[in-house]
């Protein structure tokens, strides 16, 4: 059982969290002629890094999205911060 | 007292006899005995049979390192399979039975299998049983395999208690090192918890005459008392079985026989591993005979249970720790002869009863053989946590190397095999000092399997893996340590390699001429010892497996005779009354169509979206255009995934300029709320949009049918309910009995309907008022089954039933926003990829059967004539009480273009015909809806 | 040296202390170049090598494995083999696999113990029974065997299941595929390895690929811990590490890695006949020939490359088993472990060109790669030898994510695996 630090509620059990996706995905402007390939990249492509990752998670009890930095091999948590104002 | 018991020794209660039986024979043991010690005290050595060859076996070790004495044990009507006799404490009345042996471990009819061992070596089954077919042989092999049988009794009270816990320092193991580490840490002010898997702490201390100048019992008691006095906790019969991420330690606490263990999920700030070390078997011919035991096991049997395992003992050992055990055996009355393993190959003489040893023609008379190939630290938890192991030449063992974060090993687990250095280190470590592993007094002569040696030399006792099997694996190039394990099954027995692994990999190293550390170890996996599946189960059972959501009106429904059932995670009325269910449901439909039905729609989502950007937000999350919706108006629409598939449908009401209520499907509320929240916070200004799920705050009662207006009118609301003043798809907020009431004119039946939402606490008042107003007109409660039929008559769909994960809105007849909507919305781009544009998409249509034909089965497919290729399937099908004929909805490839075409319906090999029609079979012009 | 496996040879070798058995495969030094280099010595990589030799006459082939053969998901799965799929594309793929499995022991002269004991997926409500009917019809129309069972039939076949009236999710019936079953996972890897080696394929263990060599935009070989190896064409079958490998040449994949756990109990006398999956309990189970219950369930919650699992999913899966078969809650668990699986958006595999010339991908099998080994190898060999798709692998091309032609069984099955 892992412990994730919600920036708003503090350290909580992993079961309270929902993985929302990798950090850094920007929705293309769909009124602007997005190609099939670009749309597919946005929809499906994952960096899926081995090691240091930056992800967006939701803490279900408070419904806040936040950025979680962790190691996808050792499972060490490096830190977390609110999504608002996050880089990228 | 039997001849094998030594008066005054052991931690058993000599005055507390316990009666038990083994393989049908009655015996007596003492309180404090394990089944194994009690049997040894009675002179019983053959306690089981090996897995493959059915060789007679007695215990090798005295605790978790015994793979041989496995029994089904029954007590008070509870039978537990595969109990290790060495770790099962004896209780009065236990009936133990050896597993994998018939009729008994002593006389096993399958014992003759051993004669065929030369054809049953490692992996023999990979080379045969292929012709004519594996299935011919498999049933016989299945029956032969397996250990104990599991009884089909469901043990009602066998429920694991589970709890969460935390501590600053968790000490695993209550031997000398663990006790002093725990005491030092506790006295330094830390919150300490020590877990010990025996019934009492002490570990190897019990084998000593004294410790630090004190008797073992006094010393152990003093340590435990000091730990407790300093605020620490000591848990006995508790095994730390695994270390998981973020230092979560699984601890299983054993209770009396027949009671399920307790699971303690311990979050430890720091873990001190003091799990000790095990004696390794020595590989010589017939080293599996009952009566060949580990030196440490004999020492434990004497020290803990007062059992002297033999009178004439031959000892085959290579290390100082083993030699230290011998004086106690001599003192207890045994005659002990040491045999130097280096002096020549050893062979055990005798079968069920040992007669002695043969070494190069020299015979040593003995009734018991004790062996010790050196100590192996128990590093399982260290490896679970990701700690490294280093090979130590001096100890000939893998010992803890680079530590995982927050973990340290002390005592024998760290390779400190002599007490003085173990205690010193443990005290230092607990205070945060460094580990200075020393080997000061422990010394050994390397002793590993010798390839090419004669005779059958066991590596894995339970699984009957011999040195020859390792040699065969090497010959066939299964040389990686994992291949060795998997090909020979070495290390896969109940003890998970605690006895077999070191000898196995050393044998492979010797065969290949490689150093042992280069061969490496297999992965250590939890659990450290086998634990009942129930441990993980606990209260997560029965109705609590997935608790149902309950309606505010549940009591009212029960009073009305509702048949309650699960619908989308809610307990809801399926219908009302008892009798012919189909008839009741049809009557409810006819009632609602004829007068009116009163329906509890409370689980319908009521998610409020508010704020200055709410309009733009709902316009973005909806497929349909919402910005043009006027306050007080309602629109039907779809929520899509970014992949363009319909995620949910429902109506959205604009309460005022900056406030919307999204009414999603009952079973999708949580998912929709999360979906909306994610989009609100990612890509929008979350300060300008607020989302609040009020689903359970409001109860909703729907009045539907031609008399609905009249009945709602009886509530005396200050609102004009006429079709002109309050048309279809409008919302009104009024006050009723001093509280807010929200009225929506929406319909899931095709008849005039009023959805009345009120505070959940006042639902009963509203329900009773509507029932009272409706009764004189013949209106009454309407269950969900009837509603499902009514909505299908109208061609209204249910997401997930009449759609699948690929359905897009234009497959459902809602193609306009896809073509016309000018602002971006979720899923928009996906509606224009190749598949979205395909003409072969499955579209929602109706199906009509010939006059007098019975209804189509839901789940039947529509197939292409000739090829029988599936073109789609029936998603909903009912006998319509309103139309007095069967109706059906279906998803069919390019179905809309084929209106009026007759198609073939295929169900479980039978075919029928049906005609494609529009999905709406009832009031297609909508006259009743708008009435 | 005895090469052929047979009862007769087993008998003969037994009489001479099994001294005559030869190596199952050689331990060759890598050559400087091969016609085909396959990265990954798991089931899919080894099967690919075997079918390259057998079906396409290509023998100048190397399989590079960073650890030991079958050490990834091939040796960590719950050994279920089935083709109970809804869409024709999936059915064609997985039924090809089942058919190849049916003849595999004889084909490879290695008993992989494919035991067609059948698999039941239970249904727990009337709507689920309607979905079960839809599924059975789809399977039969796809040419795959399937039977719709009612509750009494399920009970007759698997009496260990709970049929208590107060069960949270009572069993209403189920879908039976009789041809489904289990196989011996290691034997599949070893059998393919032995047969490929006999056909001349070099199987090189302890050889990790560090980089892919690109020349003029084409993949022409690999740099490994044992030096550079050139290749006419490179195929990657590295489940669990597909993103890392593709990332070496800048190819992004629609894959997320997750840990999938599996569990085995102590050996018991026969108590369960088939593979049983109860979707609302998130758990499936079979009993191995040795007698252990082999238990699996859903993915861990947190994306991961760590080959170990955590307690939440352990508790979820094992309490699911206790609910399904409460008589088994007193059985002890012997061992649990985890593998890293490639999860794609539609839970279907990716087979085909990578977008970089000379590099082909076999990945994305998610939780169900083992059952697909023969077909995966068969189709991947076709791709590597011919450079174009076999008709059965075409729908699984990476381009489906652009066109939207996903093959998503999600709607039709409880837990995909």
UniProtKB/TrEMBL annotation, chain A:
Superkingdom in the source lineage: Bacteria
UniProt cross-references to Gene3D superfamilies, sorted A to Z: Folate-binding superfamily
InterPro entries the UniProt entry points to: SoxD, SoxD_sf
One record GO biological process: tetrahydrofolate metabolic process
Gene Ontology molecular-function annotations: sarcosine oxidase activity
Listed transmembrane segments: none
Protein name per Swiss-Prot or TrEMBL: Sarcosine oxidase subunit delta
Organism expressing this protein natively: Rhodalgimonas zhirmunskyi
TrEMBL record, chain B:
Keyword Aminoacyl-tRNA synthetase on entry: no
GCVT N-terminal domain: residues covered: 554-815
GO molecular function: oxidoreductase activity
InterPro entries xrefs: 2Fe-2S-bd_N, FAD/NAD-bd_sf, FAD/NAD-binding_dom, GcvT/YgfZ/DmdA, GcvT/YgfZ_C, GcvT_C, GCVT_N, SoxA_A3
FAD/NAD(P)-binding domain: residues covered: 168-285
Keywords on record: Oxidoreductase
Occurrences of domain Aminomethyltransferase C-terminal (ranges): 842-923
UniProt-listed Pfam families: Fer2_4, GCV_T, GCV_T_C, Pyr_redox_2, SO_alpha_A3
UniProt domain SoxA A3: residue ranges: 454-535
Family as reported in the entry's similarity comment: Belongs to the GcvT family.
Protein name per Swiss-Prot or TrEMBL: 2Fe-2S iron-sulfur cluster-binding protein
UniProt organism field: Rhodalgimonas zhirmunskyi
TrEMBL record, chain C:
GO biological process: tetrahydrofolate metabolic process
Primary localization: cytoplasm
Cofactor: FAD; FMN
Catalysis performed (reactions): sarcosine + (6S)-5,6,7,8-tetrahydrofolate + O2 = (6R)-5,10-methylene-5,6,7,8-tetrahydrofolate + glycine + H2O2; sarcosine + O2 + H2O = formaldehyde + glycine + H2O2
GO cellular component, as recorded: cytoplasm
Gene3D superfamilies, alphabetized: D-Amino Acid Oxidase, subunit A, domain 2, FAD/NAD(P)-binding domain
Protein family (similarity comment): Belongs to the SoxB family.
The protein's name in its UniProt record: Sarcosine oxidase subunit beta
Organism: Rhodalgimonas zhirmunskyi
Organism phylogeny: Bacteria, Pseudomonadati, Pseudomonadota, Alphaproteobacteria, Rhodobacterales
């Amino acid at each position: 059982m892992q412990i994730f630090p919600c920036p708003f509620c503090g350290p909580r059990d992993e079961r309270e969290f929902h993985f929302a996706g990798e950090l850094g995905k920007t929705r293309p402007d769909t009124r602007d002629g997005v190609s099939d390939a670009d749309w597919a990249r946005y929809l499906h492509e994952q960096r899926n890094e081995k090691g240091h990752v930056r992800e967006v998670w939701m803490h279900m009890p408070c419904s806040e999205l936040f950025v979680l930095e962790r190691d996808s091999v050792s499972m060490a948590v490096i830190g977390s911060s609110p999504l608002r104002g996050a880089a990228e | 007292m039997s001849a094998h018991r030594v008066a005054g020794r052991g931690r058993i209660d000599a005055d507390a006899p316990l009666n038990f039986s083994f393989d049908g024979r009655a015996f007596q043991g003492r309180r404090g005995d394990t089944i194994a010690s009690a049997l040894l005290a009675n002179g019983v050595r053959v306690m089981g049979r090996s897995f493959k060859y059915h060789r007679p076996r007695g215990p090798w070790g005295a605790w978790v390192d015994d793979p041989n004495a496995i029994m089904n044990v029954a007590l008070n009507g509870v039978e537990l399979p595969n109990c290790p006799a060495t770790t099962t404490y004896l209780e009065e009345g236990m009936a133990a039975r050896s597993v994998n042996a018939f009729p008994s471990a002593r006389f096993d009819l399958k014992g003759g299998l051993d004669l065929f061992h030369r054809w049953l070596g490692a992996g023999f089954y990979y080379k045969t049983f292929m012709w004519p077919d594996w299935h011919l042989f498999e049933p016989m092999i299945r029956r032969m395999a397996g250990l104990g049988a599991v009884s089909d009794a469901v043990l009602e009270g066998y429920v694991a208690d589970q709890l969460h816990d935390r501590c600053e320092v968790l000490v695993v193991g209550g031997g000398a090192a663990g006790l002093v580490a725990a005491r030092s840490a506790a006295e330094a002010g830390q919150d300490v918890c020590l877990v010990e898997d025996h019934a009492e702490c002490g570990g190897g201390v019990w084998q000593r005459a004294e410790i630090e100048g004190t008797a073992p019992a006094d010393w152990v008691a003093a340590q435990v008392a000091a730990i407790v006095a300093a605020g620490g906790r000591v848990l006995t019969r508790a095994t730390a079985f695994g270390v998981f991420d973020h230092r979560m330690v699984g601890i299983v606490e054993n209770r009396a026989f027949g009671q399920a263990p307790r699971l303690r999920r311990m979050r430890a700030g720091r873990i001190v591993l003091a799990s000790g070390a095990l004696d390794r078997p020595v590989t010589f011919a017939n080293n599996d005979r009952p009566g060949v035991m580990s030196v440490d096991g004999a020492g434990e049997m004497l020290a803990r249970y007062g059992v002297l395992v033999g009178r004439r003992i031959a000892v085959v050992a290579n290390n100082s720790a083993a030699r230290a055990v011998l004086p106690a055996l001599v003192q207890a009355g045994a005659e002990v002869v040491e045999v130097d393993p280096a002096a020549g190959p050893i062979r055990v003489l005798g079968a069920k009863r040992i007669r002695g040893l043969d070494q190069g023609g020299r015979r040593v008379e003995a009734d018991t053989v004790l062996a010790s190939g050196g100590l192996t630290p128990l590093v399982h938890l260290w490896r679970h946590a990701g700690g490294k192991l280093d090979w130590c030449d001096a100890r000939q063992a893998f010992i803890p190397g680079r530590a995982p974060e927050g973990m340290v090993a002390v005592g024998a687990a760290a390779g400190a095999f002599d007490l003085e250095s173990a205690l010193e280190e443990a005290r230092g470590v607990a205070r945060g000092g460094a580990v200075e592993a020393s080997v000061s007094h422990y010394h050994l002569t390397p002793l590993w399997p010798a390839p090419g040696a004669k005779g059958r030399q066991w590596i894995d006792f339970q699984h009957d893996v011999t040195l020859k099997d390792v040699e065969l694996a090497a010959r066939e190039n299964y040389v990686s340590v994992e291949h060795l394990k998997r090909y020979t099954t070495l290390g896969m027995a109940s003890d998970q390699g605690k006895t077999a692994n070191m000898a196995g990999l050393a044998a492979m190293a010797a065969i290949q001429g490689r150093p042992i550390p280069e061969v490496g170890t297999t992965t250590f996996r939890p659990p450290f010892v086998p634990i009942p599946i129930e441990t993980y189960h606990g209260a997560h059972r029965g109705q609590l497996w997935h608790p149902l959501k309950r309606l505010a009106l549940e009591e009212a429904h029960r009073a009305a005779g509702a048949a309650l059932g699960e619908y989308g995670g809610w307990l809801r009325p399926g219908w009302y009354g008892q009798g012919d269910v189909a008839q009741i449901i049809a009557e409810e439909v006819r009632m609602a169509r004829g007068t009116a039905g009163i329906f509890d729609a409370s689980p319908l989502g009521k998610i409020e979206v508010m704020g200055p950007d709410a309009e733009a937000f709902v316009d973005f999350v909806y497929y349909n255009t919402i910005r043009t919706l006027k306050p007080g108006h309602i629109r039907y629409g779809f929520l899509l995934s970014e992949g363009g598939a319909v995620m949910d449908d429902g109506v959205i009401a604009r309460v005022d300029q900056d406030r919307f209520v999204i009414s999603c499907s009952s079973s999708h509320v949580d998912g929709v709320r999360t979906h909306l929240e994610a989009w609100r916070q990612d890509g929008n200004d979350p300060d300008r949009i607020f989302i609040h799920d009020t689903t359970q705050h409001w109860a909703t009662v729907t009045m539907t049918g031609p008399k609905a207006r009249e009945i709602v009118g009886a509530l005396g609301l200050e609102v004009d309910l006429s079709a002109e003043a309050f048309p279809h798809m409008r919302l009104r907020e009024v006050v009723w009995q001093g509280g807010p009431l929200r009225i929506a004119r929406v319909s899931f039946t095709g008849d005039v309907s009023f959805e009345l939402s009120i505070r959940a606490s006042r639902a009963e008042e509203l329900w009773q008022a509507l029932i009272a107003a409706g009764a004189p007109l013949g209106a009454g409660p309407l269950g969900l089954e009837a509603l499902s039929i009514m909505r299908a008559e109208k061609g209204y769909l249910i997401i997930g039933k009449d759609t699948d994960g690929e359905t897009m809105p234009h497959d459902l007849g809602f193609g306009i926003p896809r073509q016309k909507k000018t602002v971006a919305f979720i899923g928009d781009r996906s509606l224009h990829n190749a598949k979205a544009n395909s003409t072969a998409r499955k579209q929602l249509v109706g199906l009509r059967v010939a006059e007098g034909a019975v209804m189509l089965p839901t789940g039947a497919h529509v197939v292409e004539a000739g090829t029988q290729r599936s073109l789609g399937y029936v998603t909903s099908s009912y006998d319509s009480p309103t139309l007095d004929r069967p109706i059906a909805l279906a998803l069919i490839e390019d179905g809309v273009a084929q209106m009026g075409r007759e198609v073939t319906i295929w169900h479980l090999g039978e075919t029928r015909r049906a005609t494609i029609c529009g999905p709406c079979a009832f009031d297609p012009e909508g006259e009743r809806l708008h009435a | 040296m005895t090469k052929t496996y047979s009862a007769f040879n087993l008998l003969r070798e037994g009489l001479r202390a099994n001294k005559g058995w030869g190596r199952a495969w050689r331990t060759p030094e890598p050559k400087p170049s091969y016609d085909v280099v396959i990265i990954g010595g798991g089931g899919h990589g080894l099967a690919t090598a075997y079918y390259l030799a057998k079906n396409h006459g290509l023998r100048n082939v190397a399989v590079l494995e960073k650890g030991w053969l079958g050490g990834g998901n091939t040796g960590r799965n719950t050994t279920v083999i089935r083709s109970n799929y809804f869409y024709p594309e999936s059915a064609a793929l997985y039924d090809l696999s089942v058919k190849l499995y049916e003849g595999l022991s004889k084909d490879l002269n290695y008993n992989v113990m494919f035991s067609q004991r059948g698999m039941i997926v239970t249904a727990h409500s009337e709507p689920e029974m309607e979905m079960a009917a839809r599924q059975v019809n789809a399977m039969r129309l796809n040419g795959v065997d399937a039977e719709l069972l009612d509750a009494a039939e399920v009970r007759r076949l698997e009496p260990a299941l709970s049929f208590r009236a107060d069960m949270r999710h009572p069993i209403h019936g189920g879908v039976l595929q009789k041809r489904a079953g289990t196989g011996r996972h290691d034997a599949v890897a070893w059998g393919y390895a032995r047969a490929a080696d006999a056909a001349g394929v070099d199987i090189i263990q302890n050889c990790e690929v560090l980089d892919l060599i690109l020349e003029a935009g084409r993949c022409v070989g690999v740099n490994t811990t044992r030096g550079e190896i050139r290749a006419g064409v490179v195929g990657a079958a590295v489940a669990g590490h597909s993103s890392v490998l593709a990332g070496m040449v800048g190819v992004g994949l629609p894959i997320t890695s997750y840990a999938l756990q599996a569990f085995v109990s102590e050996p018991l006398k026969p108590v369960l006949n088939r593979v049983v999956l109860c979707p609302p309990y998130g758990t499936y189970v079979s009993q191995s020939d040795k007698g252990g219950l082999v238990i699996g369930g859903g993915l861990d919650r947190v994306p991961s490359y760590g080959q170990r699992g955590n307690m939440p999913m352990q508790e979820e899966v094992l309490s699911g088993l206790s609910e399904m078969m409460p008589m088994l809650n007193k059985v002890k668990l012997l061992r649990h472990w985890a593998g890293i699986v490639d999860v794609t958006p539609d839970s279907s595999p990716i087979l085909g060109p990578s977008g970089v010339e000379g590099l082909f991908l076999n990945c994305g099998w998610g939780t169900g790669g083992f059952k697909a080994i023969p077909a995966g190898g068969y189709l991947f060999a076709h791709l590597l030898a011919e450079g174009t798709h076999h008709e059965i692998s075409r729908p699984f091309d990476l381009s489906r994510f652009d066109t939207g032609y996903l093959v998503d069984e999600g709607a039709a099955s409880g837990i995909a695996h």
